[in-house]
Amino acid sequence: MAWEANATPDALLVLLVGGATLLAVVLRHLCERIKLPPLVGYILIGLGLRLTDGILPILQPSVMAAFELLAALGLVALLFRVGLGSDPYRLLEKLPGASLIWAVSVIVSGMAGYYAARWAGFDAVPALVAGVALTATSIGVSLPPWQAAGVLRSERGSLVLDVAELDDISGVVLMALLLSLIPTVTAGGAIDWGGVGMTTVSILASLAAFTAACWLFAHWLEPPLARFLATRERSPARMLIVVAIGSLIAALAGILGFSLAVGALFAGLVFSKAPRRVRQDRAYIVLYDFLAPFFFIGIGLKLEPAALTGALGAGGILLIAAVAGKLIGTALPALWTAPKGSALVIGMSMVPRAEIAMVVVDQAGRYGDDVVPPALYGAMTLVTLVTCAVTPSAVQHMLKGGSTGRGQSRPAR
C-alpha cells in the first residue's frame, strides 16, 4: 500500500502516540460521564490498536518497542503515585485497627485466586500469579461514591483507606517475592524447597536493606532537598528533579531484581511526607496524565484477540473468586473491628482490581507464556474491567442505604 511505503517508523510512531494520547483524553472524559474508571477506556485503546494491526500492519517492532517504553514509564508513574499517597508513619499508628482485616483479606483473596485458577485449568505457577494479583485492591475506583456520600473522612472511610493502602503495599512486596522465585520454581524437575527458602530469605534481606536505604534518604536527605527546591527552583524544574530522583530509585530496584514497580512504590514513599506539594504541582499532573494511560494501553496491546474468547470461562471463575475473596476476607474480620453495619460496604469497596493486580500479571508475564498464558492474561484483564465497572455503583447503592454519619475525621494530608 502507498501509505506503508511513505510512512517511516518515526512518523508512524508519532502518529500512534499522538492519536492514543488524544483518545485517552477523550475516553477519560467519556468514562467519567458514564461513571466508569478511565482505565477501561485506556485498555480498549490498546486492544483497538491490536485489532487494527490485524488489518493494517501498524505495530512495527520499533513502534512496539516505543510503546513498551511508554508503558514502563506509565508503570513507574502509577506506582509512584500509590507510594506518594501512603503515609508509613500513619499506617503504623493505624496498624492495630486495620491489620486484622488486612491480613485476613490478603490470605483469603490470595487463596481464592490460586484455587480458582487451578480449577480453571492453569498450572501451579500461573495460579500463584493469579493469587498474588488478587490480593491487592484498587481503592481509587471505589472512592468517588464515598466522597459523594460525604463519608470518606468518617471512621469507616478511614478504615477502608488504611486497609487498601496496606493491601497495595503488601501486594507489591508479594510481587517482589514472586518475581524472585519464578526462575527457581520454573527451572524444571523437582522443586528444591531448600533453595526456594534460601532465595526467599535472601530477597527479604535485600528488600529490608533497600527499605532502610529509602528510609534514610527520606529522613535525612528529602527534607533539606525539599527546602532547597522550594527556594532555588521553579516549577517545572523543581518537579523534574523529583521525577528524576524517583526514576533513579525505581531503576535501582529493577537492577537489584525487585522490578521497576517495587522501586517506584518506594520512590513515592520517600516523598510521601508532603504528598500535596508534589501531587498539586502542575508539572506533575501533566506528566502523570500523559504517562499513566500508556500502562493500560500496553495491557490492551498485549491481549491476543483469539485468546479473549477462551479467557471468558477462566475470567468468570476468577471474577467469582475476586469478588468472594475480598467480600468474605474483608467483611468477616470487619464485623469485629469496623463500625457497626459497615462490614459489607467495606468489603465491597475492596473488590476492584486495577493497577496493582495488572502490574503483577504484567511483570510476571515477562517470564513467558508458561508463567502467564494468554488465557490468564485475558482472564485477569476481564476481572479488572468488570470489577472496576460494576463496583462503584454497588458501593454507592450500599452507602445510600446505610448511615452517612461522619464520625472521626481523617487527618488532612
UniProtKB/TrEMBL annotation:
Signal peptide: none
Location in or out of the cell: Membrane
Residue span, Cation/H+ exchanger transmembrane domain: 23-400
InterPro entries, per database record: Cation/H_exchanger_TM, Na+/solute_symporter_sf
Membrane topology: Multi-pass membrane protein
Transmembrane segments: 12-30, 39-59, 65-84, 96-117, 169-191, 203-221, 241-271, 283-301, 307-329
Domain of life: Bacteria
Keywords: Antiport, Ion transport, Membrane, Sodium, Sodium transport, Transmembrane, Transmembrane helix, Transport
Record's keyword annotation contains Hydrolase: no
Official protein name in the record: Cation:proton antiporter
Native species: Spiribacter onubensis
Classification of source organism: Bacteria, Pseudomonadati, Pseudomonadota, Gammaproteobacteria, Chromatiales
